Amino acid sequence: MNENNNSNLDRNLVNVFKELQQKRAEDGYNYQHKETQKSKGNITSGITTYFSNTRKNFNPYAYGRREKRKKQAINSTKTFSYTKLSVCIIAVTLIVSLVLLYLSYSFTTYGLEETQEVAQVEPVEFEENQNVIDIVQIASANVDTSSFKETLNEEREIKFPIKYQTIDTLPKGEEQVVQEGVSGTNRTVAVRTYDNNELVEENIIEEKLVKEPVPQIVNIGTSEFLAKYKVHLGDVMYVTKATELKESPNENSKTVTEIPEIVDVTLLELAGDWSKVSYDGKSGFVKNEYLTSAAVAPEMIERARAQRILRDVSIDMPLNKKSGLSLDDYKKILTGNVNDKNKIFEQNYAAFYEVEQKYNVNGVFLISLAIHESAWGTSNIAVDKKNLFGYGSYDSDPYNQSFVFNEYKDGIDLVAKVLAKSYLNPKDTKYYNDEVATAAYYNGPTLAGVNVRYSTDPEWHNKVFNYMQALYNKLLPNQVRQQQENQDTQAEQFQTEEQQVNQQN
Description:
Layout: H1 2-53, H2 60-117, H3 135-142, E1 148-158, E2 162-171, E3 175-179, E4 184-195, E5 198-211, E6 216-223, H4 224-229, E7 236-239, E8 243-246, E9 255-259, E10 263-271, E11 274-279, E12 282-287, E13 291-292, H5 300-310, H6 327-333, H7 344-347, H8 349-359, H9 363-374, H10 380-385, H11 398-401, H12 408-423, E14 430-432, E15 435-436, H13 447-454, H14 460-473, H15 478-504
Parallel strand pairs: 2-6
Antiparallel strand pairs: 1-4, 3-6, 4-5, 7-10, 7-13, 8-9, 10-11, 11-12, 14-15
Helix pairs in contact: 1-2, 8-9, 8-12, 9-14, 13-14
């Protein structure tokens, strides 16, 4: 009974689908859809009848197969329905398009025919609009695109602070950077607001220190003394008056050494009305009132230099050392001498400087020797033989025995070499390159030592020294030199008067 029912159900479903396919092929799309709906009803009715008749003899396996086939039939029916709907829509769209096209063509043709029958109408002239409306411009003007916001995440510089501190070792008002400042950095998150492309507001959301700034430290001077003389610690100043160098800033303090006037010292420290200075390798204190600077008294530079040279000038000074004079100094001391009538010394100042550098012989001594032996270049030997020293002559026949030179500088060079080799240096002393002294007539490097073997006149050394002293004094400024010469004259007059009084007594 159950098997017959199952076979009948299978046969009915197969027949139903075959029948649907045959009808779709014969009657077309619309008929097929209609028959499909009818078959769907028959299938549903048959299935319902079947299940009502066979409910008592239910087979789970057969029921599963029937449910599966039922779902397939329903899905097929749905697919067919959607396909039919799509075809209908496309067909309707095509029909509407054809109708509109036909109506458009008919209307155009009718309009042309009507236009041909109407009388000709003169064309109307239109004035061109000069003010063309720019739609894009109007739209841009009414849409504000220049106002916006942006978020920044960046490192920003932190300006270093400046710290000022006063100090009394600088001139008043002067600033000195003792520590350079270094900028720091922050990591900053900020929101900026722009209006018309201009920044109108910035809000800092977050700041984080990345690098700490280093402050700049600036000293500001308060010393009026340094400001007055425009000097700093370590600069050269000049003593205007002979004074004592003290151990401490006190009149009653122990004296370290004597400082002559017009000499240079080095400023070390400030101590109220006193200053600590260095002089010839010794340090101590002098009163501020005895100090000046080149900024206040520019002439002190040359005066102090000359004074340092002059303080070593004495009749016992060593002659196998350089004088300390520059080439300009030689020109200065040999220019404008009224006794140099033939200008021999003035024209040969460079020759005396060069032999000093060459043989290490004091050039001022060599000039003084030449002046003494040639009477300022006026002797016959000096004029005829260009021999300023009477070199080679003897008392018995000085003119004929003296040497003849082609130029004055040749005689100057030879005499300087002979003095270095035989009179001024101990034996085996190197005086020029690898040449050494023989010391044949050496009795010491002083004027008195040379006098022993060089001249029979016992006062020769004093006479030569007088010329040396006069030449050295020409290093001083004219005003100072004149003042010193007046003082020397007054001293000589006083000595002469004193000697006369003694003789009368």
